[in-house]
Structures
1.
Amino acid sequence: MSNVTLNVNGSMHTLDIDPSTPLLYILRNDLGLQGPRFGCGLGQCGLCTVIINGVATRSCITPVSTVKSEVTTLEGIAKGGKLHPLQQAWIDEQVPQCGFCQNGQIMTAKALLDKNPNPTDAQIREGMNRTLCRCMTYYRIQAAIKRAANAIAAAPPSQEVAEKEVVA
Amino acid sequence: MTPFTKVPKQVEEVLGNLNGTTSRRNLLKSAGMLVVSFTAAGTGPLTQEAKAQAAASAAGPYPDPDFRQLDSWIVIHQDGTATFYVGKTDCGQGTGTGFRQLMSDELDIAYDKTSCIMGSTDNTVDQGGSGGSTAMERDAWPMRRAAAEARRVLLEMGSSRLGVPVDQLTVSAGVITVKADPSKRVTYGELVGGKRFNVTLTGNNVNAVTGVAQVKPVQEHKFTGQSPQRYDIPAKVDGSLKWAVDVKLPGMVHARNVKPPVAGAKLISLDESSVRNLPGFIKVVNKGNYVAVVCEREEQAINAARQLKANWEKPATSPFPSSENLFKYMRDAAPTSSSNPIVVGNPEAAMAGAAKVIEADYDIPFQGHTAISPAHAMADPSNGQMTIYSNDMKSYGMRTGVAAFLGMPREKVRVVWMEGPQGFGRTAADDAGCEAAYLAKEIGRPVRVQWMRNEETAWDTKAPAFAVKMRGGLDAAGNLVALDYNALAADYNHVGYNEPDTVLIAQLQGIRRARPAAGSAATPSEMYAIPHRRMTSQVVSLPMVWETPLRTGNLRDPNGPQSTFASESFIDELAAAAKADPLEFRMKLLTASTTDDTGFKRARSIAVVKAASEAYGWDKRPSPKPRDAGDILTGRGFAYAFRGQTIAAEIAEVEVNRKTGHVWVKRLVCAHDCGLMVNPEALRHTVECAMLHSVSRALHEEVQFDTEKVTSVDWNSHPTLTHSDVPARIDVVLVNGDPNPKRPDLPPYGAGETACKPMLAAVANAIYDATGVRLRRVPFRDARVLAALQTARV
């Protein structure tokens, strides 16, 4: 056991924990988060996905000792009481059936759009390919990602506008 | 009354958050005084429910909610909102939203002033939970009748309050108004908010429950037929929903199972010292071949279960043939049971007189549920009762099963249903609930158990493998005159619903029922008029019957996809032999008779087939089409089937890569008739996903095993459909093919499963159309398709 400090959704947490513990169990059982979920424990399905350093990361196979940057979970992507455009698109497209995998879908899609705000159909398929859904909601997930990309392009968050202005 | 008759606070919060309402328990507690005054007004001194509760409280804290009490179904709050309590669970198709639409219409209340609580055995009447796509078809009827009765009772109360006869009142959105003087009005909340109705309903069983009032003609429904967004979705995308996996209780511990390393292995000894000193270790629990390790923390339990040293003895003989040899084994085995063949006309004579006879064998392997989350449950054993927090789709069955398994009175056991991964029958035969309860009783603390991925994929319940022989005779004009269907299903000892002698923990502990379930094989479900036919279905058994990972259970439209893969592929083969367009060939079989059933299934089948053909833009020609020149071969395939009274006609368009054998299902069309459409958009999505579920079964899914164990243990060894497989276009056409489509009593039929049924055949037929190669063995993985193309020199 040792002290581990984690920044999760902007809040700092210090825990006395076995440092080899996969991040997933700490997020769920110590910090009470419900977005990331166990699906396989093998990094194959994506249910446990969180974002670290802009990368969609499978928290079920990520030892907590390796986490050095802020961890963003599904609970942390809405800003100022407003859902992230992906979450809103998920509602508008009525994407979920059971919904159990949708944390992985939304977080993987967010990392994808953060890197590539206007992905092609092929890039969406490739970027989402290892994120599984057994209700087979894929068709609407892909539609929702395109909807969210359009929404972000139409009303970019202020920070991104500022960055573009600097570039220009 | 013990404190455990209350739903724990955190679950109250779950229910409250999800439904935007106060809980029933709080309501009834706070309404205590009001009940007395209301009772004094003349509805009887002691209701049946109160009597039942008084009798049951001696046995335990969780008496069955009385389905004959209106208060068990509907609570009106003081603010004029209503909560509906229904004995159903949702496997992800949004049935709760549909119940709210139908009940709001019958009650005459605004949809957005209502909420719905489902499936917790001490709070909602026993409607069996989910299964068989019965939500709208069967179980919404008593809900509708209860809501209609509540409206009638409220109108009578309004009549007394306003001093005006009922026939001079009107009601809309929960407000009763005097027709002649709209300033005179009273709301539902003012009449009964926070109080009991104390109205007794009639009916011998929950399905027959009714009051005096009649339900409305469907034309008078406002919300039914609209598509309000599903109420459960926002909390599923913002992370706020508490699922069954999220339940936390003070003092809880974590358990993981240790499964036999090979099927049929017998536990000889356990070396507890191999884990005793691991951090958080609490106990190894063992009875027979059931082994679990309990630790303080989840990751500790996972680690300890992996490290526990156990000595297992392999069985003397192989528990099953390998998956490579399965179909030969099945064909050689003596069936354990046969249904009486369904015979029409004289099939042998007709076959003998046919101008052309063809036959073919079709093989469908075991396919798993492989739910996206492994089985899980939390059980709380405090104060001599047992509460199980579970996503079991048949929570009522689990309660009965757990009570019997533990030898506890039912009244001391309850199941609190919470959301989980897709049901599709796996959670009707849930294993984790019994395990959690057993472990909680052993440990004396709340226990959360969850299976690991390799356990779930290897040991979940399976859809049975099928080996089907088809034979058909055509006359000289290419008409189908005789058809013979003969199915073998490896379905002996089919697992039931949370039965205390068939759940896996019971099997591993050595419990055996005297007569294993016979199992079944399905027959085709179409309305073709074929003058001579025979349909035979037989069950075979693998060597190992108990404690086997190849135990069969219900998987979404149980046996339908297997049976229909054979029958609808073969109809295509017959059409090709007759050089006929495969859709036209079927239409001829549908229109060859005009006799119909009471649900007009033939007429509706014809309407659905036409609708699919039009939506796709089907051009008439025989299959296969002239082969494309390049590496990508394209084709289209059709298949149709019904399930109960719901009918689906499906068209798949495929691209087959001649060089790799890879199949992409590029476009899908489904025309679908399930009678009354309660929420068309939710229905459309359910149909889309049901089709893709079967595309996954067609292209990817097969449980593989050697002669000792299942070797499909994760998403690499039991692959599933992925984002890359998704069609470029899906069209769902919702059809109302009733001969009298506007009839006021148009019934809703089940919609969760039918669209699964024809798709395996539609994909095979499309591959044939593209390549001229007939695939008769599922799944159509690249290597299998490539081998078939190479054999045929495509």
2.
Amino acid sequence: MRREGSALQGLGVVVLKELTDHLTSARMRVLEWLVVLTALAAVYGAITQIREVTAEDPFLFLRLFTTARDPLPSFVSFLGFLAPLMAIGLGFDAINGEHNRRTLSRILSQPIYRDALLFGKFLAGLGVLAISFIALWLLVIGLGLIMLGVPPGGEEMARALLFLLVTIAYAGVWLALAMLFSVIFRSAATAALVTLGLWLFLSVIWPSLASALVQAFVSPDNPVLQITAAQDLARLSPSTLFGETVLAILHPTTRTLGPVYLDQLQGALMGSPLSLGESVMVAWPQIVGMIAANILLFVAGYIVFQRQEVRA
Amino acid sequence: MKNPDMSDTVVEARGLTKRYGDVTAVDRVSFSIAPGEIFGLLGPNGAGKTTTILMLLGLTEVSDGQARVLGHDPAREPLAVKRRVGYLPDAVGFYDYLTAADNLHYTGRLMGLSSAERKRRIADALDRVGLSDAAEKKVRAFSHGMKQRLGLAEIIMKEARIAILDEPTNGLDPQASIDLLALIRSLKAAGVSILLSSHLLDRVQSVCDRVALFNAGKIALMGTVAELGRQVLGGGYAVEVEADAGDGIALRLGAIPGVRSVSETAPGRLRMLCDRDVRPEAAAAVVAASGRLKNLALDEPSLETIYTRYFQSAEEEARNAA
């Protein structure tokens, strides 16, 4: 059955409204301060650490993101932890909030399709995440310039920029997941709890559970299979994908994310950095995986939403 | 109009059916609404009124049958339908952190209105529903009645040709209901066709030109209130007499030609069912019995009575058949 008119009619209106709502909401302000303060603490720790152990590092600037100083974790691990939290915070009541406010049927009786509402909310959420991360990223770079006094090279900037894009894609996965649950569950609290639970499970428990599962089911005679199987299982979690991607992009010496075979080391200069293109190739499956997860989760939410009854 | 034979109706439902699994929520419902008419879908909660409305708006799929709104099929051309139809859902909600005007600006943008057009129409619509003073107030502070009126303002702003109102007076205090019904009448006066649903029969009786009584997903009765009265109450008139006239008065009244029955509804209060208006004779009978006539009224059939009577007899029939 062909529908009349564009599915995206009204999309811009929804995006602008949601952006305004997010950017003026108290929830957003709390999340922003949480992210900014913790991230700045991490960067400050990294800078003092880098100053103490100034080594001949060609990618000194990237260490801003990856160096940890006890007791603080590095900026990257902070972001890997807080980006999902922020995304879930933006998405968990996207659709059920409209239901509970009894605005959904009124909005959908305007000349727009449901597509515009759901996609508009996703784009606005992604936009807010992008704005926050870009601001944070610029803050970190600026802080690095001032406190380290070393200008970053072109490749370093390119890698840092790529890191920014990957972070936005990673947050997008959790945003899409949160929105999926906001469509499925009528209660916003349930949706938030389920999403947060799944996030904790996937980022904290799953990596260790994956190797435990493999040890239980794969015979120890085949260590290579054990390692690869554990890795493949662990990669079902977006956090693993994000961690590996960041490793490849911010540590140019990373040559592979899987097990290394002896023949692969032949002719390799140990500890020498890869070019940017080669680093991207190393993490390419992970990057594609994250983008695919974005699309899959959004489509799942879309299908459920299309079939849902609008009546309260 | 795309379909020439529909030009005298704005809404037409033919055999409209909605099934959820094994449950049939709306069962082969057919009705039509003429331009400028107020049509009431009345019936208890869960009778299928809201589902029928959602099918007319293209907000839920039709399992069987056909709907036409202004010549468009809501399932295939929902945007064309939604551009011309205003909808006030049951217990309508607004973004409570936005002002009344901002809420309308958002829907106005979704309708594709330009900024200048929106400003003009919103000021005008808020003025008509009496919310001009509250335009810049957050909706959070609004009472239920104010929200209903704001919902009507949205329909006025849309310049809709059809307004569909789902339980508009539900949960309103008597004064707010009266105000809202007056607003609905003024919409009709402006040439808008109105479909409204309610379970409060008496409140909406006064505004509806025609009604359809829903029961268990089906339309049990349809027509003007007077028609339904004739159909269900067996036609005729009901005259209420209130008098101090002793016990013999019931017999005297019953003797008036054309009176079919007399019943005492309360001490000193008699209800006569008759074939014609017997008020003059009834007054004479009371006076002749040297009674004191306190009240004499011809009863308009009330929807409530029609409804209860209809379902009572339907139940009886079912029992007799069994």
3.
Amino acid sequence: MLSVTWLLIAVPLASFFVLMLAGRRADAWGHWLGVAASSATAIIGMGAFFEMLGRDAESRSESVHLFTWLSGGDLHVDAGLLVDQLSLTFVMLIAVVGTLIHVYSVAYMETDPNRRMFFAYLNLFIAAMMLLVLADSFLLLFVGWEGVGLASYLLIGFWNHKPEYATAANKAFVVNRIGDVGLIIAMGLMFAHFGSVSFADVLGGVDGASTAALTAIGLMLLVAATGKSAQFPLQSWLGDAMAGPTPVSALIHAATMVTAGVYLIVRAGAIYEAADDARVVVAIVGAITLILGAIIGSAKDDIKKALAASTMSQIGYMMLAAGLGPIGYVFAIFHLVTHGFFKAGMFLGAGSVMHGMSDQTDMRRYGALRTAMVTTWITFGLGWLAILGVPPFSGFWSKDKIIEAAFVGEGWQPWVFGFTALIGAGMTAFYMSRLFFMTFHGKARWTDEQHPHESPLMMTVPMMILAAGSAFLGLFLAVGNRFQHWLEPVTGAHGEQEPVLAVPVLTTLTLLLVAAGVALAYWMYWRNDVPTVAPPPSLMALAARNDMFQDSVNRAVFQIPGTHLTRTLVYADAALVDGAVNKQATGVAAFGEASRRFQSGKVRSYAMLMLLGFLVLASIIVVGG
Amino acid sequence: MISPILFWFVAFITVIPALALMFARKPVHIAMAVVLVMVGLAVSYVALKAPFLGVVQIVVYTGAVMMLFLFVLMLVGVDKRESLKETITGQRWIALALALGVGALLITVVSRLSFSVSEEPSEGTPTEVAYWLFGDYVLVVEVLGFLLITSAVGALALTHVPRLFPKRTQAEIQSARVAAGADPVNKAFPGVYARHNALDAPALDPDGNPIEDSVSRVLKVRHQAIDGSEFKDDNKARRRELGAKEDEA
Amino acid sequence: MSPVNFVYLASVLFAIGAATVLLRRNAIIAFMGVELMLNAANLTLVAFARMIGEINGQIMAFFVMVVAAAEVVVGLAIIIAVFRARQSISLDEPSELRG
């Protein structure tokens, strides 16, 4: 089974083509084909997983060579797949969560006439994401990277008859592109220093390269990761990406695509281990985004945008963990997996709420949905508890380990990173509780025509499966450190290091902060009435509502100067370049006009010019010797 | 080597008339001045031990070239008075400056020469010149022959004037004559008899009568024309004498 | 006196001939200036022949004379042809090649 892992990419891709080319004829059965393709991928993935489990730890990694791709001069790139523990972890996450969301979408998109194309794009996304995590070289990874960017664009702008949705898709694509430039430059640097872009050559040859080169490569890879994972400073697109249908938000912008940046950083772990400065920058970026997402999430009234801010913040946790070195890689991936389950579950829950509330997304218009949508309440609640990090649910096992790892080290780093993670945990508790209470508890603030009802089974069953994962997957993976041992051959072992604060102290502090956050949210949004219109904001709240003015900054710093620069260049091109050429032409013509005056037609003038010429030449010869 | 008096004499009779080229007004005066220059140059050639060349100078230049010039001047208009007013602005001063410049340049170049004058120069006698002309330079002489022929033919072609009227043909002359009343046929010749073929006897028409126009009018006026009757029957008598039968005479 | 003085004389004559070509409007007189320049060159050739002692300069001068004669023939023929067409031999009038 491991040798046919290329099917993981081929099957969804083939389904995409069939659905796209079949046209309207496939409208009746297209979605089932999409579900079938995703299910097949999940089955093949599980088969590969079990086969790999049967092997020893050392021999689990397998390289599958597909074909020679580029061969010219010094560059030789083979297309191949690297199937190891890290890639299979992602494969399982993508396939399982993806299939559940496919099933959910059958019901969610029931009334949409373009449902077939929706499933086509979903399959395209699955294929591209599989390629991304299975590739054995940075270049092939990049193909998958671009593919998921394309799928994301197509899916965010699925309802592009609304101009703002189309704009949101454009924004996502453009910001992603900026990150892509980082990846391209990194590949160029790799090619320059290692002569190759495959994982084996680059990661294996880290010892021979200079620190400066590795730092540069690491920073460029970080730029790429910030673009794809919506980290600071390229995070502005994630909130707008909520314009897409909710299953899209669940799959792409919670569980999988936005985690591709973390995958990249972890995969290139060898580079970051050798370039310490780049690694610290990764951690700093993660820490900043963590707090930023939390602040923004506390002020958003749109349920999807609040969840998007939460995603941003949680991926900040993962980045922070990845930036801590070998200690943190495992927990970054652990948290990534658990986050995939509970965040996707919560997004699907939000979709269910929206479905029941006639696509209303303003949380100020929710309230007291606990009794109207029981299943949704329970599944969403399990996800809420997981993200809070309440034991024994998943989030506790992954997030607490990150906080512990953040407190390991010397100098300023453990204190800064550790307390950031700690405070972030408290803030997470606050805004997620705020979201939960505003939606399901308190007094009903519905508008008159809304009759909330539970969603159909095809929507609730995936939610239930995800909720089960949110609840128990973390515990399952943490027992006996089995997840750590599973990933160790790839991420490298770390020595046992103690955090600067003792582990029990940290755990207690975390739980105290979480409880404080929940209590504050309870007081503000359950016990007290929630105003249906957003109250006048304080300065911080105003900034948070406006995504911390990142869009304004982007506009002022990049867009407007960029537009001016472009206009100046265009004008300069027309005036200088074209002008130079045109002026040359007119100059030559003017010179010709001036020279015409010598041609008087009179013989004696010509004779004079001849004599003059003779005199000049002879003088030059005589004087010049 | 060369007497200074001779040199200065030559200098005067060449430079002064040459200046006439620039300043004189009548073209014929100028032509005469140029002749004088040529003669002066011929003198200097002889002084420079090139007697053949000196004579050729006189013959060719003064005798042929300047005569050609004079002929053309006469064709063009010999009594024209040339205006010395200059039409092109600045031409006069620039021309003088350039000429002075050229002269100065040449004199400078020559003054920088270092040379030795040969004591035993070859004499440019005709024999000596001929020896070289038809020895080493015979090919050049042939080419010069071509050149002269070409220039002569070229001059002919350039000055050829096409006919103004078509040439009068003989047919036209004859028609004009007849239209004016002349006899289209020739007059009869004077009579030719057996014993008399002078111009004074008239010819006989088929009836045996004399034709008046066959004798020149001048003879008639001078009363030198005769009647041709005495010779009329001579043919028969003579033939009888010679033995022919009666009916055959 | 050395024959080089004749070369100076020839330079002067050359300059005068050049000035004549530039200054006179009558085509025939300008042509005479050209002839004067040719003769000046001849004088130079002969003078140098005398100085060097060889006769080659004289031969060259002879050839120059022949060529000058041929040139005069053709040049005057041209002047006559132009005169027939324009009834004028002024050098200033034909300016159809003005550009």
4.
Amino acid sequence: MDGKAGSEVTAAPGVAQIDVEAVNAAEKRPLYEKRRKIFPRRARGTFRKVKWAVLCVTLGIYYLLPWVRWDRGPNAPDQAVLVDFPGRRFYFFFIEIWPQEVYYITGLLIIAALSLFLVTSVAGRVWCGYACPQTVWTDLFIWVERMIEGDRNARMRLDRARWTGGKIVKRLIKHAAWIVIGVCTGGAWVFYFADAPTLAGQLVHFDAPLVSYIFIALLTFTTYMLAGHAREQVCTYMCPWPRIQGAMLDEHSMLVTYRAWRGEPRGSHKKGDSWEGRGDCVDCNSCVVVCPMGIDIRDGNQLECINCALCIDACDEVMAKVDRPRGLIAYDTIAGLESRTTGAALRPKLFRARTMIYAVVIAIVGIVMLVTLTSRSDTDVNVLRDRNPLYVKLSDGQFRNGYTLKILNKQHEMRTFRIGTAGLKDATVSIVGNNAGDTVSVGSDRLRSLRIYVTAPVAATAGGVTDFDFVVTDTSSGAAFTHASTFRRAP
Amino acid sequence: MAAPKRHEGQPSTTGHEWDGITEFDNPLPRWWLWVFYACIVWSIAYWIVMPAWPLISSHTKGVLGYSQRAVVERQLERNRDAQSSYVDRIRTASLEQIRNDQELLSFALAGGRSAFAVNCSQCHGSGAQGSAGYPNLNDDSWLWGGKLADISYTIQHGIRNGSDDARTNEMPAFGRDELLEPAQVNDVVEYVVSLSGRPANAAAAERGKALFAEQCVTCHGENAKGNPELGAPNLTDDIWLYGGDRAAIRETVHNSRGGVMPAWKDRLSPETIKQLTIYVHALGGGR
């Protein structure tokens, strides 16, 4: 561990050599040992800026989305994104999902998984490095930590220091800030399940439903624990993705890589020394100290590496100081790495079988979902045939069949439907307990279940089983909805 | 066998070896140990507060006094409370009022369905479809009348069960009691078969018609359409309680028939009987 902040040892003019070993170096890691803390040093550079931008956008979406309004007319909530459990609806801008349409969620999850595969095979673990909530919140928590306790060396000193008043105050402020972020995280979560302004008022006055407080507490706890304390252990021990990604990568996937062919043999460099016969790596260990995962990228591609690219920023800064070309650590493919050792540059191959298959499958699932979403009806008719008895013989020789007819009115207003049959001559329809003949009204957003008797003379039927349709007609719009069923009689 | 490569700081092995595979003697993870101890503490607390240990004829009750039976009782009580407003209205409403009130009708249909499944389906079948000797309640052919009041009376007092108010009739055993000769029984059977429009021996049916006019019209009526006042079935609709083939009809004429239905007025509450009446009436055949 380093600690000699003002260490005399230099790797190159103006570049301090930091005495550090990667915490998570694979061959050194014992199976059972208390976790060694990682104190990532601040990095500056292009990728750090990109990460800040992604952090702002993703957290901004997460915290603000529940407050976006979307007018759906009367009898419907005006929250753009809302999971309405009591009303059993999911609202997403102009889309409204009923519980029986939950397969859209399945489709979304399939697309999400395949997109992850596609992005991984093209650009490696960019999800892990930039957009994963664990990465984003950990980044935010480390930033808070740095604001309060200082950068790496100051934090390490503070960690070793005895418990003085100053240390207690700093630690209290840090944990309080973390908990505040956690509360905001949990607070934003519950707003997705209820009208945000209403719930916010209730939360402040302590008359919100208990479950919302429970969920805020739960998410506060998980955010505080995972981003504040567990950090890189979530990625290495809890998350299955590092294991899965091995199957997603191939020699054309972009990875954060140390170009050993350029860097080795490494060693400190004195002003005026020749660069001949040695590598560009001055062994300053900057890449190691900025790493939030506690690894040494120079050991090669590793399970722990989330490809956050902060080591690229750190190394580029050093390369600029020693006046060597940037990109000793850079995004590269394994194929590119091999071809460059022989001097031939290789462009990353974007179009290859793996990426094409992922893209095609994503497109197919997306099109299927889009077609079903746009062609779905605002009315569902379902018919359940009585099985016991299959048919009833009446005293005038006719036969009667019983059905349960369900009409689902997805519109936000009450509608009246006329119920009839097609394909069954001289059939009469009667609705149990209905005083309005063959018309029934179904309330807005309601499912109505009806007991229906269909009576038909033997002459109307072709045999023991006759196919026919129930026709449910909206009396005001004239739109007709049919559902196939069968009519049975004694053979 | 070469010793497995070991790293600095790794624990020793247990000393066991299977085909060269050795097992590290690793300490248990600390979090796991703490969870284990917490489980032990929890289980001891659980024995104290919850029912836990079987005794010879009983079990330890636990200081909380929790009992699943009591929970079920409470839930049933809650359900009865939740239904009480409807049940109270059904108690005071007439059958016609229940039928014309959407809300009460829905409640009575649901309540009637479950009461039917518990009390009636053993004979009449789960779909009220009946079987030989037990009438189908879905059709519109009623022995004792299909109006709400008729159905209600039948459920309350039953049929031929010996009580004073029960619906009772008795068909003579024309063959067994030698009211008719065997050949005459056959003639009546032919006539009855012809009544529902089926092919029959014309000469025999003609002789049977005369016998029918002598012996049967009192109850079954001149046109054989039956009489619900007397519980005499309609013989022309081709709906048969005991089967419509010649053998079954001959058996009926020879030996007579007479099924029994219990009276339910002392077994079920008046509200339940009302719900059952509404349910049976709504099965499709109610008049």
